[in-house]
UniProtKB/TrEMBL annotation:
Belongs to the ETF alpha-subunit/FixB family. It comes from Pseudarthrobacter equi. Heterodimer of an alpha and a beta subunit. GO terms for molecular function: electron transfer activity; flavin adenine dinucleotide binding. SUPFAM superfamilies: Adenine nucleotide alpha hydrolases-like (SSF52402), DHS-like NAD/FAD-binding domain (SSF52467). This is Electron transfer flavoprotein alpha subunit apoprotein. Keywords: FAD, Flavoprotein.
């Protein structure tokens, strides 16, 4: 059976849904093992067993978080060699992609990013050129490194839990050329889900005219993350972190509500793999309606508050 290695970086107190998705995908491709950096809580270890991991690999060095990505790639390369993995799966975050690239160089492996699904034979599917094409691609190398977009796999525990063995992997951090982190500042938490992992995203554009209140109100009614077009972030109405699109974040939620956004190709590039797209725009000719599953021709300042009120009412 093919060996599949999943990289989980600093899982925290409990595994994120995107990590459970990686473990579920790994099981569909072969026998999964997990390389974990950072603290490993009992709850996280229990999830590894629940999701059928055969082994949990830990770095010998405890200070990987003191550096930028290079030592993490070194750890993962050693873990891949230890397990004989033919496929390595990482999340599709900017850091995940950078680790993937460095890992691929170390393993002489093909790397495919922005993957939305993987066939049993290792063929990966992704959309390219600002979402204009969907492609199927397969690495020709013995090892392939894939970064997987969140929200494209339904997390499912294994039929029977495993009893993963714990393996310590030697990582000589001192021999890896790496930049040391000298200071960190915690970002204020919004209380909303992370944009790239969220199951529901409510995004606003220039049509919000400087007032993101209705977007935030609807997002909170739905337990959603808040996104934005570049027009809105460039105008300073909301932080650049919220930008969705070619030069912003790529999201793939179950539901994407687009409010006062025209649907330019650079915006579509970041959200068109969403499962259901609902567009609210007062211009019936707006290109966003070409990709929307449901369209509401109306003013965001009428539609969004009504939707939020109705959702709150139904939630009780
Ligand atoms: C290299 C490059 C990279 C880019 N990267 C990105 C990116 O990552 N993400 C991104 O989003 N853009 C990106 N852009 C910009 C992109 O081309 C568009 O300019 C941008 O997406 C437009 O944002 P918008 O839809 O909010 O604004 P507009 O195109 O101005 O659309 C506003 C929409 O709101 C509607 N509207 C106005 N008032 C209301 C109202 N009261 N109620 C309902 N609807 C209303 C209008 O009918 C219109 O359709 C990039 C551009 C370039 C050149």
């Amino acid at each position: 059976m093919a060996k599949v290695l999943v990289f989980i970086d600093n899982p925290g107190a409990a595994l994120k849904k995107s990590s459970l998705e990686l473990l579920t995908l790994a099981r569909s491709l072969g026998e999964p093992a997990v390389a974990v950096n950072g603290e490993l809580t009992d709850a996280v270890a229990a999830s590894f067993a629940e999701y059928g991991a055969a082994a949990v690999l830990r770095p010998s060095a405890q200070d990987l978080n003191d550096f930028l990505v290079a030592p993490k790639a070194a750890f993962l390369a050693a873990a891949a060699e230890n397990t004989g993995a033919g496929v390595v799966l990482l999340d599709n975050s900017p850091e995940g992609k950078e680790v993937a690239a460095r890992l691929a160089i170390r393993l002489n492996a093909g790397v495919i990013t922005d993957v939305v699904s993987v066939d049993a034979d290792g063929t990966a599917h992704k959309s390219v050129l600002a979402g204009s094409y969907t492609t199927a691609c397969k690495a020709k190398t013995p090892v392939s490194v894939l970064t997987i977009k969140a929200n494209n796999v339904v997390p499912e525990p294994a039929a029977a839990p495993s009893a993963p063995e714990t393996v310590t992997v030697e990582v000589a951090v001192g021999t890896v050329p790496a930049a040391r982190i000298t200071a960190r500042e915690q970002k204020a938490a919004s209380g909303r889900p992370d944009l790239t992992d969220a199951r529901v995203v409510v995004a606003g554009g220039r049509g919000m005219d400087g007032d993101f209140g209705p977007v935030e109100e609807l997002a909170d009614a739905l337990g959603a993350a808040v996104g934005a077009s570049r027009a809105a972030t460039d105008a300073g109405w909301i932080s650049h972190d919220a930008q969705v699109g070619q030069t912003g974040k790529t999201v793939s939620p179950q539901l994407y509500i687009s409010a006062g956004i025209s649907g330019a190709i650079q915006q579509k590039a970041g959200m068109q793999t969403s499962k259901v797209i609902v567009a609210v725009n007062k211009d019936a000719e707006s290109p966003v309606f070409e990709i929307a599953d449901f369209g509401i021709i109306g003013d965001v300042f009428d539609v969004l508050p009504q939707a939020a009120a109705e959702i709150r009412k139904r939630k009780g």
